[in-house]
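Quick one: structure for this chain?
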Amino acid sequence: MASKLERVIVHVLRKVKPNTDEKDLIEKTTKFIKRQINIELKKGNFKAFVEVGGSVAKDTWLNGDADIDVFILFPPTLSKRMLGKVGLQIAKGAMESFSWRERFAEHPYLETYVKGFRVNIVPCYNVNKGEWISAADRSPFHTKYVRTKLSQEDIRDEIRLLKKFIIGVGVYGAEIKVGGFSGYLCELLVLGYKSFIQTLKEISIWKIGQVVDVEKLYDGKYNEAQRYFDAPLIVIDPVDENRNVAAAVSKEKLGELITTSRYFLEKPEISFFYPNETIFQSSNVIIENLTKLKSDLVFVIFRSETEVPDVIWGQLYKTNRALKRLLKQYDFSVLRSSVWSDEKGSNVLIFELETKDISLSKRHIGPQFDSKEARNFLNKHLVAKNTISRLLI
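Got it. Here's what it folds into:
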């Protein structure tokens, strides 16, 4: 009789593996998109070519959740400014029959929907390995690398299981808003550890500063990698030893994945992959629950210009950290903090304080009595008007 773990895996795999109809539709859709882009390239006499990348090109996408990433590779002679401009021009012309919107990473790219699939059309440079001009230049090399390692269908299924698990436990997504794991990172972990279960076993014993080097580019010199990258998780990019694929992973998301991996291995349940839907409470219930808190909440609500999501969330987290430091500087005990945005201009910074009231008096600890700075400290505070107690040595 199959174990509970085996039954869960078989059940999940049946749901996440794309069927033949979906594969056929994606193949037809990608061919259509490539054809439309090539028509625009020919019109403008651009010396560029088109490649499909991402999970579609590697056949590692999840059933009903495929994004089609299309790259237009331009010659390195094109300036960075023109790369974004020309790339958008070509993409818009190719997708003129569809609704689209401009997105922005290092340079602009186009997002649209074709036959129900989200499509990202990204300009990049056609360069040799290691001669990167833009961040997107590595993507075609990532696709080629992973495809050379996917010799068996089984390993694709193992990747799908890990992706679905990471989505289910809420740590999927390398954007700043999430601070989690990208699809490429999931693929590398399974390629390195060989299976979904073995990957979770390894993750369950990870420590902060863990190094994963699939191609052994650092030859076991993990201390060197840790000094160079200084990140909670370090996964060396097989196509670029100077890049950490896990750079976006926050300490919080890493901790969540380590913890949930341990729990799943101890007690496997389908709910790790398919969690219950969040039940949103009414505003009255929320207010009632907040009033029961023994702590105090501070909300900083403000509007801002509409920006690219990664820019918005980056600024919010940065501001949150600065205000948290300021609150601590003035002796407030910050239990936790968070940020929120609708990405349309409305933003909130949230701080939970042990109490919003602080004592009017404060113990000011000075330098050691035998240090050079002791005299200055005494001269300043012995005669200060706000000194309310005698000096203690």
